[in-house]
Amino acid sequence: MMWWGDGWGAMTWGWMALMHIVWGVLIVGGMAALLLWALGHLFRPWRGGGEDRALEILRERYARGEISREEYEERRKVLKG
Q1: Which residue in 78, 77, 58 sits closest to 68, CA to CA?
Q2: For residue 27, how far is the Cα from the chain centroid?
Q3: Residue 72: how many CB atoms within 10 A of its CB?
Q4: DSSP 6
Q5: What is the distance, to the nearest Å, from the Cα of residue 40 to the centroid of all Cα atoms in its chain?
Q6: What pLDDT shows up at residue 53?
Q7: S-S: 72 plus which of 16, 17, 52, 62, CB 3.0-4.6 Å?
């Protein structure tokens, strides 16, 4: 029976097949990670942002009378930046 090259053909094809599988997993995994990241940023407004929630809590505390108007205004300015 005749062989091509020096007989390493089967091993070479095995490595090539393995590398195709690895690249496929990396590409599909990268696409899935990108999709999850994009969906997380898309739905962030409905989860409640940190600054908006902080202002909401500040308004609630002012409405309940826990803080004075001056303290409310001062903290609001700090939160607004």
Answers
A1: 58
A2: 17
A3: 16
A4: T
A5: 6
A6: 83
A7: 62
* Count of residues in the chain: 81
Residue 47 has pLDDT above 70, yes or no: no
> Which comes out higher in pLDDT, residue 8 or 73?
73
CA 79 to chain CA centroid, nearest Å: 25
Which stretches of 1-81 are DSSP H helices? 9-42, 44-47, 50-64, 69-80
What is the spatial distance between Cα 44 and Cα 37, in angstroms, rounded to a whole number?
11
The whole-angstrom separation of Cα 54 and Cα 1 is 78
Confidence band for 52, pLDDT divided at 50, 70 and 90: confident
Name which residue leads in pLDDT, 29 or 10. 29
Paired tokens of 72: 């409310």
1: pLDDT strictly greater than 90: no
